[in-house]
Amino acid sequence: MPSASDHNNEARKKAFKMLEEAEKKRASIRLERGLVQLRDVGPEILGNTDFTSGIAGYLHDLAVRGEMPRTLEIIELLFSYLENERHAVAIRPILEEICTVSVERCNVRLLKYLTKKYCAYIEDRGGKIVITAHLPWFLAKSCGMYVRSNLWHEFDETVSVLWKVRNRTFITEEGKQTPFKDIFSQIAAKDVVEKLLRHYLTGDQKKRDFAVKTLGYLGKDASLHLLNRLVFSQNKEERFLLVSLLAVFGEDILPTLQTFMEEDLPWYALRNLIALVGEIGNPRHYSIIEGYLIHSDVRVQNQVITTALKLAGQDMEKRLVQALPVVDDSLKLKLAMQLGGFSSRENIDAMLAMISQRKKISAEIRDEMVQKLCVSLRAYPYPRVIQALKELQRELEPEGSDNLLIIVEETIQRLQPKIRHRLKEEKADMETLSYGLFQEREEREATGVEDFVEEIEQMIDSGKIEKASSAMYKKIVDLARAKDFDAAEMLRDKLLEINPDALQDVISLSEKIEEEKTSSSSSVQAEVWEGLFNTFSSAEYDFLLTVLRTEKYDREERIVSAGEIDPCLYFLNAGLVQLSCASGARETFLKRITPGDVVGVNPFFSASVWTVSMTALHDTTMLVLRRDLLTTGEEKPPHFEEKLLEFCRERESIPDLLRMSGQERRNNARYAVKVTVNNVLLDIYGGSTGKRVFHGEMIDISRGGLAFAIRISKKQSAHLLLGRQIVSEITLKGKKVLRCLGLIVGVTIQHELLKEYSVHIKFYQELGQRQVTDVLNLVL
């Protein structure tokens, strides 16, 4: 049984509890009265410490009991007294305690309201803000709670305000000044950064954009955590996303990144950091990663090259050239392909040096390396490149692979026409310059310009302005017709000086000068090209003259060689030229062509290699129309190309000449056959990335090549096929596939309206007769 003392103890506890509850009730009543007084009378009651010390707990209890409107009403009242600095001294500690209670007791609704009020208070005030030292802690804690509770909207609102005022300072009541941006280091707790990172890695684009923005706010502390994550990431997708995300921090992250790189990191960690340097994107920072070109792991070297390409900049070519001899042999292939896009002397020297020192390269990749260098050298139309390639050709012929020899030969055939045209144009420019520098005075004297100017000045001195003007008008017209445009324009300007009333005459003269400039050049023999005048309108003929280039050839000089890729039309303007074709080891004469003839219709219009050679028999002048100049002509008249083709077809007889000579046939018998052939077009280096297959209907096949028909929507696309490597796949009986690697040597239009073309392929390696028979058996 309970003793009497137990009953007494229980009674005392109940009494104390009743007293405590009564005291709480009285305290609550006093607080209520105090709050009413604060609202109705004024802030004098803030001097009562019993009142101020109990407000925070009282407000929390109100909120817990569900009296949130009353709670927020009181907080609103307290915030209103912050406007007066004298009253704010008492109010700040009260609000600080309320904030602390809301955090410690995880009252999210109360915390949201307080955060919003403080953000508005901070944003509304300019200059320095006096707050308690505890406020940054509260704001940082609030942000952390928002993130952990997935209250992203509230988090965004808070950090956005803090970011807006980051360059301002707050002053604590103790007088300490601190920039608002320091708050972000408190917000950037590890779990907050990690959750934002997950938001970025797994979210949609909207969430990613939000994470990027917010992590950028959090600055160095967030970037340090992300760098740690990136360094040891081996997940490809995550690594790419992290690199992209860290680039948001820009160059601010580089000191930390360099500190990481000084550590003894595994290869994949270095690769990740090097990739980040590239994503930041400043070419000046290449020096950070340059030393890793000689890293023992080829994957690190590869990332340095990839990053150098991404950084670009004016020194990129130099960096690639410097990397070529030091990186692993397997990476030299990648560099060889990249160097084709540049044209400096150092670049040429580096590639030619690699070809001459090819035996130092691993035998497994040597031929492929040289192939890629040869393809890259197609961007360099210089005689010394041709010289080096022909030397390589001689060295390879005894034991070199057929594929490599074909690539070398094709490169030579592509470069020779480019070199020839470039040198001819340079020579023409020098002749023009020489003419301008050394003959201008003589020609002006020959036309009597200087004497004429003296006569005009005498007329002006005598007051005969009208007579001088009339004489000048006639002289300017004569000079324009004689193509002395400098003298004509000089006199035209002088005419306006001596006679301001002659403005209309000056305008008329300007038009006449321009007409003469665009009229048929004296270098074009009008009587030879009368057919062109009849074919084209005046505007079309003038356009043709703007794209034609004059090239002069000496006696016995080769103009074009069979096998070259030279999409040009040659108009023989003066001289005599011989056409010939290959016949075994000798050349077979086809025809002599004379002024007015046109050669090159198929290479120009249908995209094919040259099947004939042209040689100048006397000093010869050719008017040359390059395909690239025609297709890039911005003001090409409509239907111009169709009219030009019609004119040229009437004057070229090469196909008939080849058939008559017997040289039109292939070296091997060809067989007409209609079967489906699947084709994979390789890139310029022989790669098949993506393996895009297109189908065609075979026209014929031989041991040395095949032809198939396809539709091509754009004529320019047909020209782009010429010279490309292609793999043709034919499915034989029994599902066996015959794969043939070859080179596109011709793309000929068969039906203009239907846009049907025949594509002609020369195989790198001839088929066996049994393989040809297997194809023919498909139609039996």
Fold and architecture overview:
This protein has 780 residues and is α+β, with helices and mostly antiparallel strands. The chain is built from 33 helices and 18 strands. The strands form four sheets. A six-stranded antiparallel beta barrel has the order 13-14-15-18-17-16. Strands 4-11-6-9 form a four-stranded antiparallel beta sheet. α16 runs parallel beside α18 and α24 packs antiparallel against α25. The radius of gyration is 43 Å and the shape is elongated.
Walk me through the topology.
Elements: H1 4-40, H2 49-64, H3 68-80, H4 85-104, H5 108-124, E1 129-130, H6 135-148, H7 152-164, E2 169-171, E3 177-179, H8 183-187, H9 190-202, H10 205-231, H11 236-246, H12 254-261, H13 267-280, H14 286-289, H15 298-311, H16 316-323, H17 329-338, H18 345-356, H19 363-376, H20 383-396, H21 402-446, H22 449-461, H23 465-481, H24 485-498, H25 503-518, H26 530-535, H27 538-547, E4 549-553, E5 558-560, E6 568-574, E7 577-583, E8 586-593, E9 598-599, H28 601-606, E10 613-616, E11 620-626, H29 627-631, H30 640-649, H31 654-661, E12 670-672, E13 676-681, E14 693-702, E15 705-711, H32 715-721, E16 725-731, E17 737-751, E18 756-763, H33 769-776
Parallel strand pairs: 1-2
Antiparallel strand pairs: 2-3, 4-11, 5-10, 6-9, 6-11, 7-8, 7-10, 12-14, 13-14, 13-16, 14-15, 15-18, 16-17, 17-18
Helix pairs in contact: 1-2, 2-3, 2-4, 3-5, 4-6, 5-6, 5-7, 6-7, 9-10, 10-11, 11-13, 13-15, 15-16, 16-18, 17-19, 19-21, 20-21, 22-23, 23-24, 23-25, 24-25
